[in-house]
Amino acid sequence: MSIRDNIAAIEERKRQAAERSGRRAEDVLLIAVTKLHTPEEINEAIDCGITDIGENKVQEILEKYDRVKPVRWHLIGHLQTNKVKYIIDKVDLIHSVDSLHLAKEIEKRAAQHDKVMDILVQVNAAEEESKFGIGAEETDQLIQAICEQCPHIRIKGLMCIAPLTDDVEEARPFFAEVKAIYDRYRGDKSGKTDFQVLSMGMSNDFEVAVEEGANAIRVGTAIFGARNYRQEEK
Ligand SMILES: *Cc1c(COP(=O)(O)O)cnc(C)c1O
Questions:
Q1: Which atom of ligand 1 has the smallest separation from the CA of 159?
Q2: pLDDT surpassing 60 at residue 130
Q3: Ligand 1, residues 6, 7, 33, 160: which to mutate, most atoms within 8 A of Cβ?
Q4: Does any ligand 1 atom lie closer than 6 A to the CB of residue 161?
Protein backbone atom coordinates (compact mmCIF):
# COMPACT_ATOMS: atom_id res chain seq x y z
CA MET A 1 0.00 0.00 0.00
CA SER A 2 1.15 3.54 -0.68
CA ILE A 3 1.76 6.19 1.96
CA ARG A 4 -1.45 7.84 0.77
CA ASP A 5 -3.48 4.64 1.20
CA ASN A 6 -1.97 4.01 4.62
CA ILE A 7 -2.79 7.50 5.85
CA ALA A 8 -6.35 7.17 4.57
CA ALA A 9 -6.74 3.83 6.37
CA ILE A 10 -5.37 5.23 9.64
CA GLU A 11 -7.57 8.33 9.39
CA GLU A 12 -10.58 6.06 9.04
CA ARG A 13 -9.59 3.86 12.02
CA LYS A 14 -8.85 7.01 14.04
CA ARG A 15 -12.29 8.42 13.15
CA GLN A 16 -14.04 5.27 14.28
CA ALA A 17 -12.09 5.12 17.54
CA ALA A 18 -12.81 8.81 18.18
CA GLU A 19 -16.51 8.19 17.63
CA ARG A 20 -16.45 5.27 20.05
CA SER A 21 -15.17 7.73 22.65
CA GLY A 22 -17.78 10.37 21.79
CA ARG A 23 -15.47 12.61 19.77
CA ARG A 24 -14.84 13.51 16.17
CA ALA A 25 -11.92 12.61 13.90
CA GLU A 26 -10.60 16.18 14.00
CA ASP A 27 -10.41 16.07 17.79
CA VAL A 28 -7.48 13.65 17.49
CA LEU A 29 -4.24 14.81 15.88
CA LEU A 30 -2.32 12.30 13.78
CA ILE A 31 1.41 12.84 14.19
CA ALA A 32 3.35 10.94 11.53
CA VAL A 33 6.48 9.46 13.07
CA THR A 34 9.17 9.86 10.43
CA LYS A 35 12.30 8.51 12.14
CA LEU A 36 14.56 6.65 9.71
CA HIS A 37 12.46 7.81 6.77
CA THR A 38 13.68 10.14 4.05
CA PRO A 39 12.69 13.75 3.37
CA GLU A 40 11.09 12.51 0.13
CA GLU A 41 8.83 10.10 2.03
CA ILE A 42 8.03 12.80 4.59
CA ASN A 43 7.13 15.31 1.90
CA GLU A 44 4.87 12.72 0.29
CA ALA A 45 3.04 12.35 3.61
CA ILE A 46 2.74 16.14 3.89
CA ASP A 47 1.25 16.22 0.39
CA CYS A 48 -1.36 13.75 1.70
CA GLY A 49 -2.42 16.16 4.43
CA ILE A 50 -0.02 15.39 7.30
CA THR A 51 0.55 18.60 9.31
CA ASP A 52 2.65 17.25 12.18
CA ILE A 53 5.66 14.96 12.20
CA GLY A 54 7.51 13.28 15.06
CA GLU A 55 11.21 12.48 15.25
CA ASN A 56 13.00 10.83 18.14
CA LYS A 57 16.57 11.93 17.45
CA VAL A 58 17.98 15.46 17.35
CA GLN A 59 20.48 14.48 14.69
CA GLU A 60 17.73 13.35 12.31
CA ILE A 61 15.80 16.57 12.78
CA LEU A 62 18.90 18.59 11.89
CA GLU A 63 19.62 16.45 8.82
CA LYS A 64 16.10 16.72 7.46
CA TYR A 65 14.96 20.12 8.64
CA ASP A 66 15.76 22.12 5.50
CA ARG A 67 14.61 19.39 3.12
CA VAL A 68 11.12 18.95 4.49
CA LYS A 69 8.17 21.15 3.53
CA PRO A 70 6.67 23.44 6.18
CA VAL A 71 5.23 21.25 8.94
CA ARG A 72 5.04 21.18 12.74
CA TRP A 73 7.94 19.24 14.29
CA HIS A 74 7.56 17.15 17.43
CA LEU A 75 10.48 15.72 19.37
CA ILE A 76 9.13 12.46 20.78
CA GLY A 77 12.24 10.57 21.87
CA HIS A 78 14.62 10.83 24.79
CA LEU A 79 16.34 14.22 24.70
CA GLN A 80 19.87 14.65 26.02
CA THR A 81 20.45 17.98 27.75
CA ASN A 82 23.51 18.78 25.65
CA LYS A 83 21.39 18.65 22.49
CA VAL A 84 18.57 20.95 23.55
CA LYS A 85 20.34 23.96 22.04
CA TYR A 86 20.17 22.47 18.54
CA ILE A 87 16.42 22.07 18.41
CA ILE A 88 15.05 24.77 20.69
CA ASP A 89 14.21 27.00 17.69
CA LYS A 90 13.09 24.13 15.42
CA VAL A 91 10.54 21.98 17.19
CA ASP A 92 7.03 23.02 18.14
CA LEU A 93 6.49 20.55 20.96
CA ILE A 94 8.86 18.42 23.04
CA HIS A 95 6.92 15.33 24.18
CA SER A 96 9.57 13.67 26.28
CA VAL A 97 10.38 15.83 29.30
CA ASP A 98 10.95 13.36 32.14
CA SER A 99 13.30 15.19 34.50
CA LEU A 100 13.77 18.60 36.08
CA HIS A 101 17.38 18.51 34.91
CA LEU A 102 16.19 18.44 31.28
CA ALA A 103 13.48 21.03 31.93
CA LYS A 104 16.04 23.44 33.34
CA GLU A 105 18.18 23.17 30.24
CA ILE A 106 15.12 23.79 28.06
CA GLU A 107 14.33 26.77 30.29
CA LYS A 108 17.82 28.18 29.81
CA ARG A 109 17.81 27.81 26.03
CA ALA A 110 14.25 29.07 25.62
CA ALA A 111 15.15 32.17 27.67
CA GLN A 112 18.16 32.79 25.41
CA HIS A 113 15.83 32.69 22.40
CA ASP A 114 13.29 34.85 24.22
CA LYS A 115 10.59 32.24 23.64
CA VAL A 116 8.29 30.04 25.65
CA MET A 117 8.77 26.35 24.80
CA ASP A 118 5.78 24.04 24.74
CA ILE A 119 6.42 20.64 26.30
CA LEU A 120 4.67 17.51 27.46
CA VAL A 121 5.67 15.67 30.59
CA GLN A 122 6.36 12.02 29.87
CA VAL A 123 4.63 9.68 32.25
CA ASN A 124 6.48 6.43 32.76
CA ALA A 125 5.24 3.09 33.91
CA ALA A 126 6.22 2.69 37.52
CA GLU A 127 8.94 0.12 37.90
CA GLU A 128 7.66 -1.52 41.01
CA GLU A 129 4.08 -1.26 42.27
CA SER A 130 1.41 -2.80 40.06
CA LYS A 131 2.55 -3.90 36.65
CA PHE A 132 0.86 -1.10 34.74
CA GLY A 133 0.96 1.49 37.46
CA ILE A 134 2.39 4.87 36.62
CA GLY A 135 4.60 7.20 38.52
CA ALA A 136 1.73 9.56 39.31
CA GLU A 137 3.45 11.06 42.31
CA GLU A 138 6.67 11.76 40.45
CA THR A 139 4.63 13.26 37.63
CA ASP A 140 2.94 15.69 40.01
CA GLN A 141 6.26 16.62 41.58
CA LEU A 142 7.86 17.24 38.20
CA ILE A 143 4.95 19.35 36.94
CA GLN A 144 5.00 21.43 40.08
CA ALA A 145 8.76 21.98 39.95
CA ILE A 146 8.64 23.04 36.29
CA CYS A 147 5.81 25.47 37.03
CA GLU A 148 7.83 27.01 39.84
CA GLN A 149 11.25 27.10 38.24
CA CYS A 150 10.78 27.39 34.48
CA PRO A 151 8.94 30.53 33.33
CA HIS A 152 9.96 29.92 29.70
CA ILE A 153 8.24 26.53 29.60
CA ARG A 154 4.54 25.96 29.07
CA ILE A 155 3.31 22.47 29.99
CA LYS A 156 0.74 21.52 27.36
CA GLY A 157 -0.05 18.04 28.62
CA LEU A 158 1.23 14.50 28.98
CA MET A 159 2.84 11.85 26.84
CA CYS A 160 3.26 8.15 27.49
CA ILE A 161 4.45 4.99 25.81
CA ALA A 162 2.42 1.99 26.89
CA PRO A 163 4.29 -1.10 28.05
CA LEU A 164 4.79 -3.46 25.14
CA THR A 165 2.38 -6.38 25.46
CA ASP A 166 1.09 -9.19 23.28
CA ASP A 167 -2.46 -8.05 23.82
CA VAL A 168 -3.10 -4.32 23.32
CA GLU A 169 -6.07 -4.56 25.66
CA GLU A 170 -3.54 -4.84 28.48
CA ALA A 171 -2.45 -1.26 27.72
CA ARG A 172 -5.97 0.07 28.32
CA PRO A 173 -5.69 0.55 32.13
CA PHE A 174 -2.35 2.25 31.64
CA PHE A 175 -3.84 4.74 29.16
CA ALA A 176 -6.79 5.28 31.50
CA GLU A 177 -4.49 6.12 34.41
CA VAL A 178 -2.58 8.67 32.36
CA LYS A 179 -5.89 10.16 31.19
CA ALA A 180 -6.97 10.54 34.82
CA ILE A 181 -3.86 12.61 35.62
CA TYR A 182 -4.43 14.62 32.45
CA ASP A 183 -8.00 15.40 33.48
CA ARG A 184 -6.88 16.61 36.87
CA TYR A 185 -4.63 19.25 35.29
CA ARG A 186 -7.02 19.99 32.48
CA GLY A 187 -9.41 21.23 35.15
CA ASP A 188 -6.69 23.32 36.78
CA LYS A 189 -7.74 26.94 36.56
CA SER A 190 -4.66 28.38 38.29
CA GLY A 191 -3.15 29.23 34.90
CA LYS A 192 0.16 27.57 35.73
CA THR A 193 -0.31 24.83 33.17
CA ASP A 194 -2.14 24.84 29.84
CA PHE A 195 -3.16 21.21 29.35
CA GLN A 196 -4.48 20.53 25.85
CA VAL A 197 -2.48 17.57 24.55
CA LEU A 198 -2.67 13.94 25.61
CA SER A 199 -0.13 12.15 23.42
CA MET A 200 -0.59 8.39 23.56
CA GLY A 201 -0.94 5.56 21.08
CA MET A 202 1.35 4.18 18.38
CA SER A 203 0.80 1.94 15.33
CA ASN A 204 -0.10 -1.12 17.39
CA ASP A 205 -2.27 0.48 20.07
CA PHE A 206 -3.57 3.86 18.90
CA GLU A 207 -7.21 2.79 18.72
CA VAL A 208 -7.21 1.72 22.36
CA ALA A 209 -5.41 4.96 23.27
CA VAL A 210 -8.01 7.06 21.44
CA GLU A 211 -10.84 5.14 23.07
CA GLU A 212 -9.26 6.01 26.42
CA GLY A 213 -9.00 9.71 25.54
CA ALA A 214 -5.78 10.36 23.60
CA ASN A 215 -6.04 13.47 21.42
CA ALA A 216 -2.65 13.08 19.73
CA ILE A 217 -1.37 9.78 18.35
CA ARG A 218 2.14 9.03 17.11
CA VAL A 219 2.08 6.62 14.19
CA GLY A 220 5.10 5.54 12.18
CA THR A 221 5.13 1.96 10.90
CA ALA A 222 1.47 1.93 9.89
CA ILE A 223 2.11 4.91 7.59
CA PHE A 224 5.60 4.31 6.23
CA GLY A 225 6.10 0.58 6.69
CA ALA A 226 8.90 -1.08 8.66
CA ARG A 227 11.92 1.02 9.52
CA ASN A 228 15.33 0.03 8.24
CA TYR A 229 17.32 0.04 11.46
CA ARG A 230 20.51 -0.98 9.71
CA GLN A 231 20.88 2.58 8.48
CA GLU A 232 21.09 3.71 12.07
CA GLU A 233 24.14 1.59 12.84
CA LYS A 234 26.38 3.38 10.37
C1 LIG B 1 8.89 5.23 17.02
C2 LIG B 1 7.96 5.87 17.96
C3 LIG B 1 6.57 5.91 17.71
C4 LIG B 1 5.93 5.26 16.50
O5 LIG B 1 6.02 3.89 16.57
P6 LIG B 1 5.30 2.95 15.48
O7 LIG B 1 5.13 1.67 16.17
O8 LIG B 1 6.22 2.88 14.31
O9 LIG B 1 4.01 3.60 15.12
C10 LIG B 1 5.78 6.57 18.62
N11 LIG B 1 6.29 7.15 19.73
C12 LIG B 1 7.61 7.13 20.00
C13 LIG B 1 8.10 7.79 21.24
C14 LIG B 1 8.48 6.51 19.13
O15 LIG B 1 9.80 6.49 19.40
A1: 13
A2: no
A3: 33
A4: yes
